[in-house]
Every structure is written in structure tokens, then in C-alpha cells.
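Can't paste images in this forum, so I'm doing it all in text. The chain is below; anyone willing to post the predicted C-alpha cells underneath?
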Amino acid sequence: MYLNTFDHWARKAADATDINPADNGVTFYNAKGKKVATAPNDLPGKQSDSGFHAFGDVLRLGRDLGPGRLLAGAWLERNIDARYQFPLDLTTGAKTGTKYGPIQNYELDDRTDTFQPYVQYDWKVTDSITVSPGLRYSEVTRRIEAPLNKVSPPVPLTAEATYSTTLPSISVHDRISDSWTAYAQAAKGFLAPPIDVIQVNGSRGIDPELTKNYQLGTAYASRQLTFGADVYYIDFSNLIAQTQVATGNGNETAYVNGGGAIYKGAEAEATFALTHDLSLYGNASYNKATYKGSNVQVAGTPKVTAALGLLYSASSGYFGSLMGKFLGEQYGVDNVAGKTGQPVFQNGNRIGGYFSVDAAAGYRTDHGPAGTKGYSISVDVNNLFNVHKITGYAGTQSVGGAPLYFGLPGRGVFLDLSVKL
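Text version of the structure:
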């Protein structure tokens, strides 16, 4: 079994994208939504809290059967999320109430249950060739219970939506020699729409995302060289896309089914030992992701990625790395909302490629102090040359609609210390 949990508390400006000082000022409301006071020079803000918990279990079974091995199992997981937000006067910390009456902007609990049983048979056709057909059933149920739903005006909502499908797969592995293998894979994929969809549409919503995935690759490993390469082709239907919609509260993000898209490309990775302690590492990929029937590139998908660097690991315990990474150009936007609300596909907000370098150095040993079983200490430097580039699209200003972007963080130095008990 496993459990993941975190709580996120935040207090921030009501609109972090609004830089106009004239928009300062706080209005206070009573429980009926009537204005009772103003503070024209105070900073409007909001406070929110979100508690997320995920727990589940994975069952794996296997036994030899005939000329192969039968595998079966299941994955079960439940995600629970509780969140709220209320407006406040950041200058004084006082709650302001809302023009709709409630103190909070929203208050909701949502839950996602996932159930995925599977069966697979690894059939050894020969000593070197294995064929593995499989079948997986995937079911995702999303439920929301909101005393105040995250809409304007906030109203209660109870809604549930279940998405399910059966996903076949098959793979072929050929062990050509002790150091060289080749493989081919084909499978169907499935992605349920996010919880945001039923927040707005209730149990009605967009269809789940479906894929047909094909991959052909090879791998080689010797004492001096490891190498892997593959080509892939992914056919999307009901691709879930985001679009910006102008509302009375400014620009808001909506999810839509973007129709079909094709992802295809090639990737390769290799490590070559220059000496007993020092290796040269590199990888590269070419990726083309476009909507069907067009040349519109899917947003957030760079065409080219690459990395090249040195890896050091000595028997004395010292280790280190120097790695350069390149991310090619991409687009922040691949559609705009048409007059009917449906997306019109076109690229915008081009983001240029960028190169950055990371470095690390450290020492590890299996002999630790005070009876411990060893320790490791290292210094990691991200963005060694302090490059400042735009890395991603962050939507638009809710007031003016100007584009917003994420940037590459400046140089960061981190000390890592771990001890084996």
C-alpha cells in the first residue's frame, strides 16, 4: 500500500497579474452581500487552503503456464481533495465577505477513484523471441460535493461522472544477442477529463481522451557503450485541450475536446565510457505533434530536445556531472475560442528554444559514522550560467488579457545530505 499527502496554504493578492495601482481598494460585504464599508488604499487579497490525500494498492500475480508466464493484477487508488478560498484585506488581514453573501469564494470536496485490473501472457515463442499480449480495464470515477462551487456566483453542486474503457496491448521482444535487443509495441491508452470539467458541467462533460500508441525500438549494452533508440506514433482522439474564454470576470480557462491529433517522432540515448571513471552521455529527440488535418502544433510540445554531458563516478566514492540541456521552440497557444465557443485551431505566443547547464559534485561511502551504513553528500548547481529565458506560457492577465509566461529560474545551489540507517 502507499499514501501520498500534502497541504497547500496560500495568501496572495486577489489578482497577481494586475499591476495597475488604481485597482487597489477593498470593499467589505455583510452576510446578505450588501456593501458595508470600503478601504480605498488597501490591497485586495485572498486566502486558500487545499488538503490532498492519495492512497492505494497494487496487486501483482504471476505463474508459469505452458510456453510462457501468465501475469495478472490490479491497481486501486482513491484521491481526496478538500479546498476553500475566501477574500480578505491583505493590508489588515480582515475577511471582506463577498458580493454574493457567503464569506468564502468557494468550498468543495472532490474525490477520484481509479480501478485498473489487467492480465498479460508472456509467450516465449523461441529462446530469443517473446510475444506479450495483454488486456487492461480502466475505470475512473470523479465526484464533487461543493457547498459553494467554484463558479460565479457560487452555488451548491453535487455531481459524479464515471469514465471507463478496455485497453488491449501487444509487444514483441527479440533478444538478438547477449548485448542487443529489439522490440515493437502497440497499445490503446485512456485519460479521463480533469475534475474541473464536472465543476462547470456537472455530470455532463467532455469525452475521455483516447490514444492508439505504436513504438519500435532497439537497445544495446556492452562494457563501454549503452545505446537505445526508438520511433513512435500516437493517434489521439478526443484530445483534451484548453482554451481561453472571455467572461464578465475576465479571461478564464475552459476544457474542450480538441478532436484528433498525431504525435510522432524519434529519440535516442547513449552513454560511452571514456575511462573507467568518466563517461560521455547524450540524448536527443525529434517530436512532431499536430492537430489532424492541419499544421497547427499542439501547445507545449517542443519539436527538438537534446542533452550532452559528462558523468564521473570513481571507486573512491567521488562523483559528479556536467550536463547541458536544450529545449527547442514551442507555442503557448494552439487555439482560440470561436464565436460559438468551439476552439479555432491556430498557433500563437511562440516560445524560443533555450540552453542551460547543470553541474553536481559529491562523495558517497558505505561506511558511516555512529554505526550507520553509509552517507552521501553533494552540491548541485542548477542553471550554472544563470541563463534567463522564457520557458512556458502561463495564460493571460485576467483584466487586460496580456500574455503571461514562466521563466527559467536563475542559478540555484543545493546541498544534499543523506544517511543510510
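The two ends are 23 Å apart (CA to CA). The mean pLDDT is 92.
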